[in-house]
Structure formats: structure tokens, C-alpha cells
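Quiz preparation item.
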């Protein structure tokens, strides 16, 4: 959310999108993510945090694929709502 228009122009964005179609990259990403989720399981294992993460991932992917339509369809204000969901989850989890 920090700089949504710049993000899709970066080389990291190209690499990230390539993980969708390249099995080897997908395996590397999946292993990395599994490691992070395991490392933070004690503090970040609430379903609402998973929902917030997946929602943020969806907004990111829409930005990559839909360019300006994604920015209009999923406004910047969603960031505050996702952060609020995550914040409540960590306080009550």
C-alpha cells in the first residue's frame, strides 16, 4: 500500500508475478512463506490475520494485473481497515 503505482514498475514486481507461472519460483516462495509463518506461529496464527494478509495479497495482485482499475476498485483507504483488523487480532488473539 505504501506506493502502489511505483510497486508495479519494479523488478521485484516482475519477479513476484513470475512466481504465478513458474513452478520453481513458486516452490521457493512457498518455502520462504512457510518458514515465516512457522517462525511467527505463536504471535501471528489467528484466522483474522490470515484473512488480512490474503486480502492485502489480493489488492497487490489486482494492482499488478489491472493497473489503474485496481487503484480505483480497491482504494487506498483499505490499508487502514486491514491494519485495524490486524491490530484487533493481535490484541485479542
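Solution:
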Amino acid at each position: 500500500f505504501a506506493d502502489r503505482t511505483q510497486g508495479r514498475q519494479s523488478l521485484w514486481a516482475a519477479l513476484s508475478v513470475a512466481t504465478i507461472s513458474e513452478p520453481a519460483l513458486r516452490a521457493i516462495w512457498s518455502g520462504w512463506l512457510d518458514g515465516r509463518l512457522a517462525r511467527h506461529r505463536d504471535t501471528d496464527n489467528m484466522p483474522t490475520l490470515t484473512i488480512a494478509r490474503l486480502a492485502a495479497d489480493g489488492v497487490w495482485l489486482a494492482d499488478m494485473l489491472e493497473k489503474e482499475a485496481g487503484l480505483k476498485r480497491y482504494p487506498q483507504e483499505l490499508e487502514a481497515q486491514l491494519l485495524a483488523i490486524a491490530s484487533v487480532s493481535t490484541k485479542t488473539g
